[in-house]
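Course assignment 3, question 2. Fill in each field.
Student: A.L.
Task: Predict the tertiary structure for the chain below.
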Amino acid sequence: MNLNLLVATILEAMMLVAGAGEPEELTEDEIQRFENYASHPLRINSANARELEVSGLFTTFRAVSLYDYICRNGPVLSVQELSSVDGFDLQIAQALSWFVSFAPDAEGETGRWVADAEFQTGSNSKYPPDGETSRTSLYWLSSSRLQKGENCYFNLGVAGQYESVHPEVPCSLSALTLSCGLNFPKAGLKVYLGDYNARFGQGAIMWNTLQINSATSVNSLILRPSGLSVSHSSKGGYAHTGAGLSWSAGRWSLSAALALPGFKTALIASANGGKPAPAGLSPMLNLNWWGQSCSLGLNAICIFMPGPSGPGISAAVSSDFRATIRGADLSGEIAVIFSPSNVPRTGKSKLPASASACLGCIIPAGEWFKTGARISYTSQKHFARIILEANAPKGHHFSLAAAFTNSKGSQTSRVDATADLKWAEMLRMSFRIKENLIFAAPVHQSLTLRSDASLTWKSNWTTSLTAACSRTSKWGLAIYAEQACRVESLCSAHLRAGIFSIDDWTGRIYFYEPDIPGRFSVPALYGRGWWISAHCSAKIARAFKLSCRLAYKDYVFMEKQSRKPAVLEARISLVTNF
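Answer field:
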């Protein structure tokens, strides 16, 4: 990648596309989704508008705008051309270039099968300071993927674990995933079997537990995957199990799915010799209409779960919209949720209904400034957030976010301020301030300050220093230094070491750490001690990629009677593709 780009690393691209204000906000499911698109880019010139949005790489307006542009002018052939499409700019186009392909003709590509195989294993050992028996756990994961362009996708994953403290059950199954997606372009039909992701609307009804109230970036107010898509997770994270289909005709699309909540849990429990609980049934339906710069959706979900006093039933219906008016992105949803409660003695039931709604907007003001706001209402919580962001031509970024939450028994206010400064991709500095105040008896206050500085030299070497402190009932401090080296497309290595002193659990500090593919590491620092971690990846004979991570954490600065066990982690991953 050109060092003069506004988005120089894949982590920056992930954050920008997902709308994350900092790496710690990325979920493991999002990391896996982006890694999948990085290795198997989405061919935007052969995808329809619905497929573009379901990928999670585009907002509704960007998906429709890009699709209409391709229909009128032909394939998009470069980052510069993508940046000229309505709704895109150079920074967004550069971020997307990590995950999309500009191939003008996908016929030759769609006829070729691509296969991946992966094996991971790792251990976690804890060493108590008082001489007690150490505890070791071992996990293993094996997955394989077979893909034929956008028309056919198969993924099979099996994961297990071993616990030294349970010799009667030395090894147990922890995850079993099977994803299958079939695309029939001429009929406008896609079929999903096994594990699949599902989310419709803007979050008034939570699908796949995707939470967007903690947004700290303007983009994260609207940027989230919508619709049905196959699950790329080998651990089944954020996925339903069952069957689904998506059908498109013109500017209309229909998605229907039948999920079996609890089925996979019961299957794993049965495989481990336990007594499985009965599975439930959950039908879902979404009807969507696309306009030139807007979309309207109707959503419905019903969940039947067996229980000791009979089946429990809950349902929800909602209507959502997304629109772009004179450059401003608007989104909203209103939902009604039904949760009947059976009364065993009388056989009667009551049908309480609750409403929820959300409304969000992103308003640009000139080329380098934009603001966003979001409000949401449920019977349990009311939430409001406003965000201001400013970008400078050389990549400098500033943001200020304020939020207020009113839930039963407490009110919370939060302020986030960040400043990211860049100089010719060589020197970068960032500053973050977070203030969180909970108005409940007693009142809780949390303040976090963080500064990062990184220096890139000889193109491939980066040295960084990060310091963060928190203030709750006590002050906490964490500092680490990292040395990273990367040889383009061949190998990379990271070495990180730091110390921490944090006595209050509510003031714990999180740091994003590089990990092996498919894994996500955001350790919480609490206590007094030091840690060191090393991560490296290398390509072997073109078809193989070997990754490993080794980390050690010790709480040597704590009193022996209250000292936490030292932790040693080791992970290794081998990926092959052909």
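Instructor remarks: The two ends are 24 Å apart (CA to CA). Residues 342-347 have pLDDT under 50 and may be disordered.
Grade: pending
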